[in-house]
Design goal:
heterodimer, A: mainly alpha, B: alpha+beta, five-stranded mixed beta sheet, four-stranded mixed beta sheet, about 40% helix, globular
Chain lengths: ~80, ~425
């Protein structure tokens, strides 16, 4: 899960050197914006077959890959 | 000779260029204006521009047509140079720049052969940097990257390396299998048919005479901007900031004229497909298209409108209708610009589907740039819908440029729209 998420984020959403990107990297510090979040949410829902409740899509849960994985596991 | 074919989103903006010219305008030439804190060194700026053109041929390319296909071709004839305007000592910089920008928006004698132009307005204390760009070459976010490449101190080779792999251009043009392609075309045509069920309310009064583009900028200070951003997140969530503005504009229009029965508003808007903070790709319209649509009954109820737009947006993306629409754009590349315009812009009654043009580019990345005091964007717009709203943010302060046809909106109507929009964005109902 972690690898798939990291790959998607790095390929599609943020511009970051692969050597400086790990599961604790702050995505917002790298410019993740509202449209990027939407694409990330839809990727998660489709790839991991979970529904992310709209009201819970907040920056605190999407700050980095570790937090996103923990949230997906919680919802699965 | 270097050549690049237009991607399907580029071709969409070329179709709009055709439509703008049909309306007697210059074409799809947009502008990004940056008021700097200090003065620029014009000699250095010219050198940087020439370096950029020598490394990225699209900066200085010309568009050629081969049947219905359009191609950028390297061009050795023209070279983009900085054009300078000096504000007279006794004149106010704001008024002087408004005159220059209005001229650049409308006057064909100001156009050069280059797809990008740099204009600098000089006053005693500071400069206004203006980038005029031909939309088929790039989109508003690409124009920001281009301005960064011209004004910033980034290594141009780094930009060239990243530009050489324009991933999303490939993504936008991605060839699908025939069954996928045909299914997507069908789904997209059904999507368009669904959009056509609501007749679009055109608010302007198209006068018969030739019109002139004009603009006004709504500026929100940092406190008001913070409030707007908080309200946008509260009502639309962090994924729907652009929709908060669209809802506000819909209601601002509705309040001016609520009497149209069985009508509503349809607003196409684009999603930027570039990676955040990437220096490239600069060129190519790296966009995916969505529509926000609501009938009058929904627009009349603020919270119902928010909830409707949000769920409509989510449904469109989860059903991949934005991707399906891209297939129609891909198909339309094979058509003449006239037929393309009819397919994607018009409703069966012959009216424009868009109630207004809208763009949201979010916060501008100013890293490594000279200090900027203010920014805004300008765009021409066709006679229907006759008005465009371009939202951007600099140093946490929001700017909304309203570009419109002077003869199609009375001053009182425009003031009412601005007043209503101000109220709506700051959380007060204008209805």
């Amino acid at each position: 899960m972690k690898e798939k998420l990291q790959q998607f984020i790095q390929d599609e959403l943020i511009f970051v050197d692969a050597n400086q990107f790990d599961s604790s990297t702050d995505l917002f510090a790298h410019g993740l914006d509202s449209m990027g979040i939407m694409r990330l949410v839809l990727f998660i829902e489709e790839e991991f077959q979970v529904q992310l409740p709209d009201a819970e899509v907040v920056p605190e849960k999407l700050q980095n890959v570790d937090l996103i994985c923990a949230w997906i596991e919680e919802l699965s | 000779m270097k050549m690049v074919e237009l991607n399907s989103a580029d071709q969409f903006t070329l179709m709009l260029d055709y439509a703008l010219q049909q309306d007697g305008l210059l074409g799809n030439y947009c502008m990004l204006a940056l008021e700097l804190e200090a003065k620029l060194n014009l000699a250095e700026l010219n050198t940087r521009l020439q370096d950029l053109a020598s490394k990225l041929f699209l900066t200085n390319a010309k568009l050629i047509q081969k049947n219905n296909k359009y191609i950028w071709q390297s061009n050795s004839e023209s070279m983009c140079k900085v054009k300078q305007y000096v504000c007279p000592k006794q004149q106010d910089l704001a008024a002087f720049s408004q005159t220059i920008l209005t001229r650049l928006l409308s006057d064909s004698t100001t156009l050069t052969q280059s797809p990008i132009e740099v204009h600098v307005i000089e006053s005693q204390e500071n400069n206004i940097f203006i980038l005029r760009w031909y939309h088929p070459l790039t989109d508003a976010k690409g124009a920001e990257l281009l301005a960064r490449a011209i004004l910033g101190k980034q290594d141009l080779d780094l930009i060239v390396i990243n530009e050489s792999a324009p991933k999303y251009t490939g993504y936008l043009n991605k060839i699908q299998t025939w069954p996928q392609y045909i299914t997507n075309i069908y789904r997209s045509l059904m999507h368009i048919r669904q959009l056509n069920k609501i007749k679009t309310h055109q608010i302007c009064n198209n006068s018969a005479t030739q019109s002139q583009m004009q603009y006004q900028v709504l500026h929100f200070d940092s406190i008001a901007s913070l409030r707007i951003n908080q309200l946008a997140v509260k009502y639309m969530g962090i994924t729907g900031i652009a929709l908060y503005y669209i809802a506000g504009i819909m209601r601002a229009f509705y309040a001016v004229n609520p009497d149209f029965i069985n009508q509503g508003f349809c607003v196409p808007y684009a999603v930027n497909m570039r990676k955040a903070k990437a220096p490239a790709p600069i060129f190519g319209n790296q966009l995916s298209f969505l529509f926000a649509q609501a009938d009058h009954a929904t627009i009349a109820n603020r919270e119902a409108l928010f909830s409707h737009l949000k769920s409509q947006n989510k449904m469109t993306i989860s059903k991949k209708l934005d991707l399906a629409f891209r297939s129609v754009m891909h198909l339309a590349k094979k058509l003449s610009l006239k037929r393309y315009a009819k397919l994607v812009r018009k409703q069966p009654n012959g009216n424009e589907r868009a109630a207004f043009w809208f763009s949201y580019t979010g916060e501008m990345n100013t890293q490594d740039l000279p200090a900027i005091k203010n920014m805004f964007q300008l765009s021409p717009v066709t006679r229907q819908p006759s008005i465009a709203f371009l939202v951007s943010q600099l140093n946490q302060e929001i700017n909304i440029s309203i570009c419109y046809h002077k003869n199609d909106f009375s001053e009182s109507m425009l003031n009412a729209i601005k007043h209503n929009l101000h109220q709506e964005l700051l959380g007060e109902s204008c209805i």
